[in-house]
Amino acid sequence: MKRRHKPLPTENILLNIERLSHDGRGIAINNGKTVFVNGGLPEEQVIAKYTDVHSKYDEVDVVEVLKASPQRVSPKCLHFLICGGCNLQHLNHNAQLELKQHNLLEQLQYIGKTTPETILPSLTGLQFGYRCKARLGVKLVPKKGGVLVGFRERRTNFLAELNNCVVLHPSVGENISELRNLLSTFEGAATIAQIEVAVCETHTVLIFRNLQPLVESDQEKLTVFAKESGLHIYLQPNKITSITPFYPIPAETLYYSPEDNIKINFQPSDFTQVNPQMNRQMVQQAISLLNPTKEDHILELFCGLGNFTVPFAKRAGSMTAIEGEKTLIQRAEENAQRLGVNNIEYHVANLQQETIQADWLDKNYNKIFLDPPRSGAIEILRQLPLHGVKQIVYVSCNPATLARDTEILVHQQGFKLKKTGIMDMFPHTAHVESIALFEKD
Predict the structure, then answer these.
(1) With CB atoms counted within 10 Å of each terminal CB, which end of the chain scores lower, N or C?
(2) Residues 105, 236: one domain?
């Protein structure tokens, strides 16, 4: 049955904003009811219009700021008010960091029932042009003059009408208009579903998801665009395994460097961190906290391509690295062999199964490193033999699941949360990347 929405009140309302929610919206109270205010900041008085009404709370957009917060800044992006790609450009950067740190510590306190002994300084980097991995929607919309390319509008599934993007790497962010113009001339414009972006240290790849084979005239236009822009083009006519280079051929190798003298090769569809500058800082922070030495046998969970594995292994006695995707493990092994690092033992395992049977679980480790997905690592943490482990470093992209897993490590396994801090991997968004050090006496 289709949900029936209540009619929205037509009159605007006056609100005094008290604080920010975890996702960066202002919070106000109107006639005893909580109101989430898109575009509002603490200490502000605003006029707002309703966008949704619920039984326990309402949602509104700011129409006019009557009293501005000292933390308010002018968004750099011309599309900020409509695009859902980022939502905090109106909040100064230091205040963004404070919000993210507050969210992390609040989750640790209320879910993890734990307070860290030390709060690490926030790691920060580029605020704009930082995003080197992205998935851009593509849609032919004749009413808007052709093809739209970019992110979704806020609160809708419609694509925002963008001409540029200031958080994307400039090789792409400054070429949104050119991509729109190109695709608007395609005979098969309606069959292009998305463009995936992968920027490496030497060039930028765009993967065009083409639902139908490109006709010859469209192929010619795409070749000219690639030559003129310097962008490397791949096509994906079907599943992810169908991704193939279009221009140039043969394709050049993609790589990034988590630290000096280490090049990690990757395929354009592989998971890599969106912010390479922050990734280098994050790897160095992890090395500092875990302090690998030649006496250490380290277990790494969710190792991926070897972003942390190789830097650790160059310092450690031995590593055991686990990843759920076989293709990533294969590429991780290839990276290590190419770099001459031969003290790593790799295994494929689904670390989110409730029961794992594997020989590597029976080995002795004195340190553990993990970098799980947003769902966290609760299943594997319940199965690990932690009796000989003295240190655990945990990189998290979701403070709620980090806090949940912290409760297990601290209150069930006897570890102490020694240090934690945020890493600003996604400036101008409410996304919180963090790192935590657990130790046992």
Answers:
(1) N
(2) no
